[in-house]
Amino acid sequence: MRARVVLALCLAMLLSGCASSGQTITAGVFQPPEGWQRIDAQGHFTFWVPAGLAPQEVHGTDSYVGIWTSDNVTVRFDYGMYSGGMDSAVKARPHSETAYRLDGVTGAIVQFTDENGLLIAELLLPHITSATNLTFEVSASPSLGKDLPLQIVRSVRLTPDSGSIYPPPHSMGR
Question: 104 or 1: whose pLDDT is higher?
Answer without folding.
Answer: 104
